[in-house]
C-alpha cells in the first residue's frame, strides 16, 4: 500500500497530432477525451483555425472530467506557404478557386519544426499519436525516444486493402486501360482473408505521382510502434486478425470514439463554422418542423467534388423523390447558376414549409443525424460517417466518391456500409432497434 510520503505516479502524457482536416481532427479530439477519461494526460497539437474546430468537443469533455484528466490544446502557427489567411485545412483549401494543394502539402512538411520543439520542451511525452499523412513524425518521434502510434481514420479492412495494393501493385500486370470496359477489368487484391476485387478505375496506378507518397507513408507506419483504429472487433474481426497476425502489425481498436458525444452534441459544432445565414441553429430549427423519420440527409464529405451536371442530377433526384431532405454541398462547388434546376430554389428556401434545406460547406453532421426527423442517410462512405450510422442504426445508401486516387480505402467503407445496410433494413425505426 502506498503511503502519503511516497511520490504520486504521474499519468502517461500522450501527444495527439491530427491531420488538418475535420474528418481527422474530430475523431482525434474524441479519442483524446476517451484516453483522458482513463487517466492519461492528453495534449492535442494543432494550429489556431483547426483548434477552433475541436475546441467545443474538448471543452465539453473537460466539463465532464476532473482537473487531472483534462485535454489540453497546444497551439502552433500554421506555416507561411502562400495560402490565404485562415486557410489551414483541407476543407478550406478545397473551397479556393486556385489550386493550392502543393502549398498545403509543403505546410504538412514544415510543421515538423513545432512538433520537434514540443517534444523537446515538454519532457516527458510517453507516446505520440500522429496521422499517417505526417510521414516524418515516425522518425521525429524516434529521435526523441518516444513511441509513435499511427492514426489514419479508416477501417482495418481499408488499411489491409491499402497494404495489399502497395505491396503487390496488381495494376502492373494489367494490360487493359481503365477507360476500357466500363472502368477496366476487375483486379484482385491478393493476400486478404476474403476475395476482394476492384475495377482498375478504383485503384491508384503506380505511375500516379501520389504512389510514392503513399508508399513512404506505409513504410513509416510500419516503422512505428503500432496503430490505433476508430473501430471495434465485432465489426471486422477477420481483418483485425489479418492485420495483427499476417501483417505483423500492432493494432488497438478504441472505437467508435464518438459514442460519448453523439447523444449530447456534435463534436466541433459552432454556428460560425458554417456560412452566414446557414448555421447549425437554422438547420436544426428547420428539422424541428418535420415529422419523425421523414428527412433524408445527403452528404458526400468535406472534400468531395461534383461537376455541375452531377449536381444537377442530384438536385433533380431529390426533387422527384418527393422526400424532405438536408443536402450538404461542399464549399468549393459550382455556383448555383451552373447547376440548379428550375424551381429548385423555391424547394430549398429557408422557410419552415420548404421540403429541402441546403448547407454550404462543413455541416454539424452528428447533430443532424441524431435529430429524430432524420430517417435516412446518403453517404460517400467516409469512415466517420459509417460509424455514426452504425451507432444510430441508420439505414443508408452508399455513394463512394472520396479518395478516387486511392479507391481501396473508400471500398472499406462501401463494403461495410452494405453489410450494415442489409443487417438494419428489417427494422422500421431506430427506436425499435
Describe this entry's structure for a reader.
The chain is built from 17 helices and 14 strands. The strands form three sheets. It has a seven-stranded parallel beta sheet with strand order 3-2-1-4-5-8-9, with helices on both faces. By secondary structure, the protein is an alpha/beta fold.
Q: What labels describe this entry?
A:
433 residues; disordered C terminus; five-stranded parallel beta sheet; 17 helices; seven-stranded parallel beta sheet; alpha/beta
Q: How would you classify the helix and strand content by structural class?
A: alpha/beta
Radius of gyration: 22 Å
Q: Please report the distance between the alpha carbons of the first and last residues.
A: 47 Å
Strand order of the largest sheet: 3-2-1-4-5-8-9
Please tally the helical runs, counting DSSP H or I stretches of 4 or more residues.
17
Shape: globular
